Structures are given as structure tokens and as C-alpha cells.
Amino acid sequence: MIAENKFADTETLVKAWQGLQQAKPALRIRDAARELGTNEATLLATMVGKNAIRLEGDWGTLVKRLPELGYVMALTRNDSCILEHKGAFKQVNVMEGVATVIGPIESRFFFYAWHVAFAVEELKNDRRLTSLQVFDKAGDAILKVYLQEGKSNYDAYIALVEDFRAAGQEQEQFTEPYAARVYDTEVDAEELLYDWADLQDTHDFHGMLRKHKVHRHHAMELAHGPFTYMIHPEKVKEILESAAATKLPIMIFVGNRGNIQIHQGKVRTIRILERGHAGPQTWVNVLDPEFNMHLLQDIIASAWVVKKPTRDGVVTSIELFDQQKELVVSFFGLRKPGQPELEEWRQLVNSLPMLQAAGA
């Protein structure tokens, strides 16, 4: 079905967007789509034939071409958190519908959710913005790759766009909402905790959740005490500032349906900023030369310390959830498979005061 909105046709939507841009020139397209009652892919599709080109083809083949672009900025976001990395797609491996990206830009692409992509040319504040943008079937952004003026290979970009240019360049974008996932509400907590205690690798955690058909946040609640406990959500600022002050390397995971982007390394500049188009919003930011994180603090409803047994010892993470109990971002101490967790990370997490879980 086409995205649900109040506009009868593309021309009406374009006029409404133009009016909104005049009233709020700094409004980002994602926020504009929300105000207009549509989604970002539908709004972006109205630019086809002018500033955007539809792309189609095998997604695995497309992403294998990303290293040709050279130095770029990759952006992954959900409703509450954004990661931006500058660098190159050094190594891209594709297998069974998943791509593993290793290097300055590290990601995991899940092609089952990739629905439509565009090549986009925009002019903002006298700056040319050239990008590749991928969306899921609900019209939500999965990945955006921005070329960097003077550093990226524009010839490779043009060749890639021509090779993947869609036969049809229509301005209408068909989208449909995802059906709500169904989880068991009566989970056998004893069996869940038994399997949790038997974990051998952090990557086994997702399989354990699927086996028990348990929502991730519900699993946090069921494991409260043995493997999880709550901390105050605002402690994320303290975590980042401590990591920056002590030069402690960390890992940050932010994902959506079709992509998880990963930061591995130190963070340096931590800033709290109040901004927003619909009123003041509190954002926790990492503002480093090659890496930015923007976390919307206001809608973080809970923060959990999570302990996962592995063959290399216990691995400790901090997971933040929004008001819909969906995972927003995860923090770990930097580690590689086969290596134990950094003791400095464990000490930092253990220094944070524990909160009582709701209903505990």
C-alpha cells in the first residue's frame, strides 16, 4: 500500500513540503515527513527526476562497490540515536543476505529489510551534498552514505549510480507498515536463565531471545538480579565522559531493521546540547573528527547493565531502551573474540549506582 498521509497526490505533497521548508528552513527531511504525516522515503521519492535517482539491483553487489567511493561519511540511525563515521569501506563480505563491513566504517547489513535506494544530490547552505540512501518497506532510513568534497571518488559514484539506475524513475513511493512482532508473554523464566547462564558467545544472545520468543526488554526484566540491573539513563553522559577522560576504548552499537553500525575505539569530545524543531530536546553528543554520536536523552526510558557469560569470561554491556521498550543503543568495552573484557570497563560500569527495577 502507499504510505498513509493526507495528500491526494504527489503534487499536493510537494507543495506542502515546500511550504514547510519555507516556514522551517532548517527542518530535516525525516522530521518534515513526520510533520506531513508521511515517511522519509515517500518524501524523498518526490525528488526523483530532479535531485534523486532511483536505484535497483542486487544489494550485495551494490555494497561490494562501496569501497570504490573512498573516503565518505556513513550514517545509521533509529528514532533516538545516530552514528556517523568518516572513512572508507575497507572490506565488505557478503554471505546469505548479510554483509559484514570491516574497517574505519564497521557495519552489519541485513538485506531482507532493504526495500528501496536513491542517489541524492542536494544543495544546503551553499554546500553540495551527494549521497546514497537506503530505506526499508515502511519508508524509514536504513543507511546513508555521504560523499566528502575533495576526498571521495565522485567518478566511482557516478559509475555506481549508472550501473544501478532503476528502469522506472517514478515519484510515487509505495510503502507499508511492518506488522507488530509477536512475543510470548508467559515466558519460562527458569529455562531462559538456564540458557542465559550457558551462553558461550555474545552473538548467541539473539538466538536465545528468539528461542524463547521473548522481547529483549522483557528478558532484561526476567533476568534482573542474576544477569541484569538498572541504572539511571542519564548516567550515559558520565560513562562517555569517564571513557574520554581515561582514554578507555569502547564499542557503541546503533541499529535499525536493516543495519547495525559499530564504533570501536576511544571517544574524546562529549557535549550536551539543547536543540530541536518541536521544542528543546536534550542530546548527548560525541563530537570527534571522524566519529559523531547523537543520542536523544529525553526519550530514553530505561538503562540496563547486562552481563553475558562467554567462553572468554563475562561480557558487560549497557543497553538503553526508549519509551516503547525498544533498544536504542548498546555500549561495551572494546574487545575482540577470544579476549576477556577490559577490566577498566568493568570497573567503570560497576561504579554506577544500581536502581531498583520496576516491579522487582
Would you kindly provide a written description of the structure presented here, covering whatever features stand out?
There is one protein chain. With 360 residues, the chain is an alpha+beta fold. It has two domains: 130 residues, Heme iron utilization protein-like fold; 162 residues, Heme iron utilization protein-like fold, CATH 3.40.1570.10. It has ten helices and 18 strands. A nine-stranded antiparallel β-sheet has the order 1-7-8-9-2-3-15-14-13.
Average pLDDT figure: 94
Q: How many DSSP-defined strands?
A: 18
How many helix segments? 10
* Assigned CATH superfamily of the largest domain: HemS/ChuS/ChuX like domains
CATH class of the largest domain: Alpha Beta
**Count of the separate structural domains:** 2
Overall spatial form: globular
Low-confidence stretches: none
Helix content: 25-40%
For the biggest sheet, the summary is: 9 strands, antiparallel
* Computed Rg: 21 Å
Series of secondary-structure elements, N-terminal to C-terminal: HHHEHEEEEEEEEHHHHEHEEEEEEEEH
User: Termini distance?
Assistant: 43 Å
Our estimate of the beta-strand percent is: 25-35%
What class would the helix/strand composition place it in? alpha+beta
As laid out across the biggest beta sheet, the strand order is 1-7-8-9-2-3-15-14-13
